[in-house]
From TrEMBL:
PROSITE patterns: MFS
PANTHER family: 2-NITROIMIDAZOLE TRANSPORTER (PTHR23523:SF2), PTHR23523
Main location: membrane
Keyword annotations: Membrane, Transmembrane, Transmembrane helix
MF-aspect GO terms: transmembrane transporter activity
Localisation per UniProt entry: Cell membrane
Species name: Pengzhenrongella sicca
Source organism superkingdom: Bacteria
Full protein name: MFS transporter
Organism lineage string: Bacteria, Bacillati, Actinomycetota, Actinomycetes, Micrococcales
Residue span(s) of domain Major facilitator superfamily (MFS) profile: 12-408
Keyword match Transmembrane helix: yes
Membrane-topology annotation of the record: Multi-pass membrane protein
Signal peptide annotation: none
Length: 413
């Protein structure tokens, strides 16, 4: 029996939801597609050790740089058209880099592929706010899970595909997801008279400013002066710093403790997979809480307990330490949710997302470098883990400010 009058919260927004999920599925593909087959790529392209190292830093640098540029492009061209361009750029970069013959060209086109994904990182939260303001927690959970699959699918499939068809086919094949992710947003634009009119105005050189909204330059300046923005950037960046440091160095930490390389790799895989439960649960929890600071405290305690275990007894209770460290990065979906919960307007959401992710990814890139330097300088892991513990304390302090129930735009008036 049909229940007349029952609310249909998803009705009429299926295309936008599909677009959000497909973009989420594409946001980490170019990062995870290379590392499983890096040895083959290095031999075929004659990548030097330095170039391979640069390849490892490109994702974070691209996310920081192009994520910061995304709000400028979105204000000029609109969220949906900018996202379409970002997905096409990511797919184009993946296709071309799979066909080049020189290391420098491979690095350049990797930057282009990741530029599109870096812009998608920033544009997706405001799009959730635009189309699903009444379902922020649920939709953020959905696309956070899609991002987890975006990380794990290449790790599972890259080697078998490369073994059968070659590494170039492997890398090029992932571009399909970026191209498909652009299609729903093309449909959204085609269906929206407002978006078509805005694009037409841009082609004629007569872009309109939204009525009743402050000028973009002024809004952009104000976000830099907001304690909320800086605290969210700190929470996001310090959480990501620890994640990237673990992905880079956890196998070495375990190997130095006497664990075999094979088992160390399995522990690293478990560390990565454990992001999935948090992606399901945390956004919906945060959306129901006035201040989700208690979640930050839990994540900080998990980091501290896991690091303490690695330092004091890495081979005893290893499962417990890896589980704790795997749960701790759930601060990532928390911050993505707060980008929408702590803004009133679309303009505020875009500005806050660009600032937090631009600054945050820039900070995150320091993690593997500083940990590596401390390890080489001291010949052990005590100083490096002490550094990571200090960043966790700062992360929790940033979370105390970021989780307060205040809105970004309140400081703009």
């Amino acid at each position: 029996m049909v229940a007349f009058g029952r609310p249909q919260p998803w009705h009429g927004r299926g295309i936008a939801l599909l677009g959000i999920l497909l973009v989420g599925l594409n946001l980490r593909i170019a990062v995870g597609a290379v590392s499983p087959i890096l040895d083959v790529v290095r031999v075929d392209l004659a990548l030097t050790g330095v170039q391979a190292g640069v390849l490892g830093t490109i994702p974070v640098a691209s996310f920081a740089l192009f994520g910061s540029l995304a709000p400028l492009l979105a204000r000029r061209f609109g969220l949906e058209p900018t996202l379409v361009a970002a997905m096409v750029a990511s797919a184009g970069g993946e296709i071309v880099r799979s066909s080049v013959a020189t290391p420098s060209a491979f690095l350049v086109w990797t930057v282009i592929a990741l530029a599109g994904m870096g812009m998608g990182n920033v544009l997706l939260p405001p799009l959730v706010k635009r189309y699903f303001a009444d379902r922020i927690g649920a939709v953020t959970s959905m696309y956070s899970v899609a991002m987890c699959f975006s990380t794990t699918l290449p790790a599972l499939l890259a080697v078998p595909i490369a073994r059968e068809y070659g590494w170039r086919v492997t890398l090029a094949s992932w571009s399909v997801i970026g191209l498909v992710a652009a299609v729903p947003w093309v449909v959204v634009i085609a269906r929206s008279a407002r978006l078509r009119a805005e694009l037409g105005g841009l082609w004629r050189g007569s872009a309109r400013r939204e009525p009743g909204r402050p000028g973009s330059a002024r809004a952009r300046g104000r976000v830099w002066r907001s304690p909320l923005a800086w605290s969210l950037a700190g929470l996001f960046g310090l959480n990501s710093l620890n994640v990237y440091a673990m992905f880079a160095w956890l196998p070495q930490i375990l190997g130095d403790a006497g664990i075999s390389a094979e088992h160390a790799g399995q522990w690293l895989a478990l560390f990565g997979i454990l992001a999935l439960p948090g992606s399901f649960v945390v956004p919906s929890l945060a959306a129901r809480m006035n201040s989700p600071f208690s979640l930050v405290v839990v994540f900080g305690a998990c980091f501290v307990s896991g690091y303490a275990g690695l330092m004091l007894a890495p081979t005893h209770g290893t499962l417990a330490w890896i589980v704790l460290l795997g749960v701790a990065p759930s601060a990532f979906p928390l911050v993505i949710t707060l980008l929408n919960l702590r803004t009133r307007t679309q303009r505020g959401g875009v500005a806050l997302s660009g600032f937090v992710q631009g600054v945050g990814y820039g900070l995150a890139g320091l993690g593997p470098v500083v940990v590596g330097v401390l390890y080489v300088a001291t010949g052990g892991w005590a100083a490096a883990i002490a550094f990571l513990l200090a960043t966790v304390v700062l992360m929790v302090l940033a979370g105390a400010i970021a989780c307060r129930p205040i809105m970004l735009e309140d400081s703009w008036t």
